[in-house]
Every structure is written in C-alpha cells, then in structure tokens.
Design goal:
The complex is a heterodimer of chains A (276) and B (306).
Chain A lengths: L1 H31 L4 H6 L9 H11 L2 H32 L5 H13 L6 H10 L7 H4 L6 H14 L2 H9 L4 H12 L1 H17 L2 H6 L8 H6 L5 H4 L2 H36 L1
Chain B lengths: L1 H40 L16 H8 L1 H33 L8 H9 L6 H11 L6 H12 L16 H26 L3 H9 L4 H28 L4 H6 L7 H4 L2 H10 L6 H29 L1
Helix pairs in contact in B: 1-13, 2-13, 3-7, 3-9, 3-12, 4-7, 7-9, 9-13, 12-13
The chains are: A mainly alpha (276), B mainly alpha (306).
Chain lengths: 276, 306
C-alpha cells in the first residue's frame, strides 16, 4: 500500500512537472518583462524587477502594440462572425434543401479541405494585387465567408441535431425560410457554431504568413506581423526586457480569450476525435 | 392537388440556392481561382510583374533537379520526425497515466487545460519568446543552466541552441512538440473516454490485469486516432514556416539546416530580389503532390483499419 502511494505521488509529480514546463516560459516572460536588459543578462530570478516603465517606453518607441491589437481585432472579429454565420447558412442550405448542384458543391468542399492553404498562396497574392487589395483588410476578412472545413463540420452537426419536423411545423405556421434559419436553425446549432467560431478566432488572431505578405504598411499591421518586425530592430534587440514585454502584450489577449472560453476550446479540439 | 404540393416543395428548395450563394461566390473567387491561377503560373516563367511565357514543365524539372529543394524537404521531415516522436510519445504516456484503472489519477480537467495552453499562442510570439530565452550568451535558459552547473562546481560550456546548425533543427522540434503535445493528448484522451465503460467492466470481471486491459482494449481502440493525429501532423508539418522562419535569420549559420519547403517557396515567391513567381508556383504544386500522396496513403490505411 505504501508502494502504491509513492508511485501515485511520483506520477502526480510528473504531471505537475509537465504542467510547469508549459507555464514556465510564460512565467519567465512576465518576470523578465519587468527587468532591465542588464539585469536579465546578469542572472536568473523569479522576482519581478522595476524596469517595466523603461521597457514600455522602449517598446512604444519602436511600435505601438495596442495599434496591432486593435488591427487584429478589426480583422479577426468580422472574419469570425462572417465565417460563423455564413458557414451555418451554407451548411443548412446544403443539408436541408434539394437543388441541382448541391452534391457538386459538397464534393468541392471535400476536395478543398484536402488542399493545403499554402498551395494557393501565390495565386491568392496575384489576385489581390490585380484587384488592388494589397494593404487592404478585405482579403483577410471576406474569404472567411467560404470556410470549407467549418461548413463541412456544421453540416454534419445540423443534419444530426435539427429535427425536420420542427422546420415543417414552422412552415405550416407560415414562417419564411430565412426566418426559420435565423430563429430556429441558428439557435439550435449554437454550440457547434460557437465551437467553430472560437477556433476560427484564434486561428485568425494568430495567422502570420498571409497578413505578412499582404500588409506592408506599418499602421495597418496585425499583431503577429507587427511582432515579427522586432527582428529588424537592433535597438530593441539590445534590451531583452523590452522584447519580453512586447511578447507579453501580444500573449495577454489570447490568454483572456482562453480564460473565458476554455470549455469551448477544449471541446472543439476533441470534436474531431469523437467523430472518428 | 398533388401537382400543387410538388411545386410548393420546389419553391422551398429554391431557397437552397439563396442560402449557398454567398459561399459559392466567395469560394469561387478566393479559393478556386487562386488554386487554378497558381497552377497556370507554374507553367510560365513569370518573374514578378507582366506576362510570363508558357514554358511547359521547365519549372517542375527545375524543382526536381534542385538539390536545395530536396534539402529543404529533408530539413522539414527531420524537424517533423523528431517533433512527432516526442509529441505523440508524451501524449501517449499521459493517456496511459490518466486511463490507468489502478491509480485513477484525478485533475484531468485542469491538467489538460495547462497542457493545451502553448498551442493557443501565436507562433510569432513563441518564436520571439524562445529566441530571447535561448540566446547563446544572454538568454535566461543558459544563465539558469550555468548557475545550476556552478552549484555543483562545474563549468558550463554554453550551447548555441538556435544559432548552430547541429542543434537548431532539434531545438525547433522540441519547441514544436511543446506546442502540440497537449493537442494530441486531448484527441487521444477524448477517444479513450469515448470507449464504452462496459468493455472495462467486462475485462475486470474476467480478471484481466491493468496492462492486459490497456493492451487489449484501450490500445486497439485508440490506434486509428493515433494514426490520424500523426498524419494530420505530417500534413501540417510539411507546411511548417513561422517558427523556423522567425527564429533563424537568413544570414545565420543554422539557416541551411532549418530552411523548410515553405521557406524555400517564400524565398522565390515573395522575397524582393529573388522573386520568381512561376517557379514558386511549381514548388507549391510539388508540395501539394507530396501532401496528396500522404493523404492517399492515409485514406488507404484507414480503409484497411476498418
């Protein structure tokens, strides 16, 4: 019995250690963000320093991270909402209406789910430069109306959880098709839509390659693109504290989202596993 | 009467067009067209602007014969290979621990949130965080290791984690697995929790010990999902870009050992001075063909499993 307890204790120790490994870099980030560059190079500590203000000044001399956060919100929020609404609308249209081309559209969705996004990068850029959409948010927002993967997932969900009798009943009452979608289908599919929405938001928020290629003006850069410009600054590179602070500011919004929606996030990761 | 009913049915169904129309329009413009446009460009010698000439398969011939492309593919696979072993190994170990019928470990809801956390943070932030932490001379990691060495009276010869070609790919692989093991663990654990309780109870009644239970029930049931995690990770891993691109500078010594296929593509597709749009498009399609063959193998494998 003693051996059992010791073994169990060791297993817990391992789990805690692993959890610490996940948090430790972020903890160091927070602490180092408050220390000066010289202090950081001189030694290791977990006690916060007093140079937060100086680091802040140095970061702001190089860029305004709140501008980046605002830009990221301007891109990620509409993209998420458009993707959630139109994916549900498309999923319902494909799942509950019989019309010519329905199967073809679904087939195309399956095909495009298998095509990696990077494949079309050059053609996408080419299209945007022809349409004069470089440095515009349109190519970062509007394409989310057509999120193949989200439509696929929601279609399965709506078909399995939406009773056709309910739609029939609403039709008998004289409700319009559009009304039925907005007032009955959308609320019923809310858990799935929210799940996909949260993941979509995080994906949009963290997206780097596409905005990096499309956005070249400093004042329009989203947060990840703005962060990447740290590389080119030798000035700020000299003070590690400022870099830690910039990283910390970029991480905090997503930590807040996670704190509020962790339940949805966890369930959306496993959605794929349960389906299999 | 019958005729009227069927025409009413068609009237409902016509709404289907209205509902899918926005999707179809945007899909055609921003998804289908770019894919076809890239295909077209891959057969031309377009540099940046203007019109390229149709050169048939010359770009593809060049990709296949360019040793730098194959080196980039090799780099990508090496980083991914080390990463997936660590990532799946750790996730698998955690599944064993949390599904053990003897120890009945608690706290899964909290642990899985913590393990999943690194996966949420943008790769750009992760890149700068670790670039700074792992700095050869001034990074906190080496300073920490140094002070531990000092504690035992030894001297630590600082390891250049991301600056040298012999360590950089492995450092990147470890960071990748740090970012992704929680994700794999969540997927595997969910499939274990999806296993019918009755199997375990029946096994317990038959007197099966915990390792037999694990080997005969848990393992076979999560094998397909492990395969699924590995293959999706390979498809994602082949497109690896953000971390190596941001962490290793192009002028750095480690660059040739960490340049991935996507970085190779980026060099020809978007870097000022070396832009060769046509060639980069062919690289994109080569990458697609590689990913497609992986997907086909996956499909075949899954059909056999069932």
């Amino acid at each position: 019995m003693v051996g059992y307890k010791i073994k169990k204790g060791l297993l817990y120790a391992f789990l805690v250690l692993l959890a610490a490994a996940c948090l430790f870099p972020f903890l160091l980030m927070m602490v180092n963000a408050t220390r000066s560059g010289v202090e950081i190079t001189r030694g290791f500590t977990l006690i916060p320093g007093t140079s937060l203000k100086e680091n802040m000044d140095q970061v702001f001399k190089f860029f305004n991270p709140f501008r980046g956060i605002l830009n990221s919100i301007i891109v990620a929020v509409p993209a998420t909402l458009l993707s959630a609404y139109f994916s549900a609308l498309t999923a319902y249209g494909l799942g509950f209406y019989k019309f010519k081309g329905n199967n073809f559209i679904f087939f195309m969705i399956l095909i495009f789910m298998m095509i990696p996004g990077q494949l079309s990068l050059i053609g996408f850029y080419n299209l945007c430069s022809k349409l004069h959409l470089i440095n515009s948010y349109i190519p970062l927002i509007v394409p989310s109306i057509a999120s193949a993967g989200t439509v696929f997932f929601l279609r399965q969900y709506i078909i399995s959880s939406m009773p056709p009798a309910l739609i029939e009943a609403a039709r008998m009452e004289g409700a319009s098709e559009f009304y039925i979608f907005n007032r009955i289908v959308l609320p019923i599919s809310k858990p799935a839509v929210a799940t996909m929405g949260i993941m979509g938001f995080i994906g949009n928020w963290n997206n780097y390659l596409l905005p990096m290629i499309l956005i070249t003006k400093n004042e329009k850069m989203t947060l990840p693109v703005m962060m990447a410009t740290l590389r080119s600054s030798t000035d700020i590179q000299r003070n590690q504290g400022a870099i830690y602070l910039a990283v910390a500011i970029s991480v905090i919004p997503i930590l807040l989202v996670f704190a509020c929606f962790s339940k949805y996030i966890i369930s959306s990761v496993t959605a794929g596993a349960v389906k299999e | 009467m019958k005729l009227q009913k069927s025409s009413k049915l068609t009237a409902y169904n016509r709404w289907g067009y209205a509902f899918v129309a926005p999707f179809v329009i945007v899909f055609a413009i921003f998804s289908v067209y770019p894919v076809l446009r890239t295909l077209y460009l891959s057969f031309t010698d377009l540099k940046i602007l203007g019109k390229g000439n149709w050169i048939w398969f010359d770009n593809y011939k060049r990709v296949i014969t360019d040793k730098f492309f194959w080196r980039a593919l090799g780099n990508t696979l090496r980083i991914w290979g080390v990463n997936i072993v660590l990532q799946l190994g750790l996730a698998f170990l955690l599944v064993i621990i949390f599904s053990d019928v003897k120890y009945k470990m608690r706290g899964l809801p909290v642990f899985r949130i913590l393990y999943y956390l690194p996966n949420l943070i943008a790769a750009t932030s992760i890149a700068f965080l670790f670039n700074t932490l792992l700095d050869w001379r001034y990074g906190t990691f080496n300073i920490l290791i140094n002070s531990i060495y000092k504690l035992f009276g030894a001297t630590y010869n600082p390891i250049d984690w991301i600056g040298s070609g012999s360590t950089a790919p492995y450092t990147l692989a470890v960071i990748q697995s740090w970012m992704w093991f929680g994700n794999s663990f969540l997927m595997l654990m969910a499939s274990v929790q999806g296993i019918n309780r009755e199997y375990f109870e029946a096994a317990a009644i038959d007197g099966a010990n915990r390792w037999t239970t694990f080997g005969k029930i848990t393992l076979p049931l999560i094998r397909p999902i492990m395969m699924y995690v590995a293959i999706t990770s390979l498809i994602g891993g082949l497109q690896m870009f953000d971390l190596p691109f941001l962490m290793v500078s192009q002028s750095g010594a480690a660059y040739r050992d960490v340049q991935t296929v996507m970085m190779y593509l980026y060099r020809f597709g978007f870097t000022t001075g070396s832009t060769q749009t046509g060639y980069a498009s062919a690289v994109a399609y080569m990458l697609f063909l590689i990913i497609l063959s992986v997907s086909i193998v996956q499909y075949k494998f899954f059909n056999k499993e069932r």
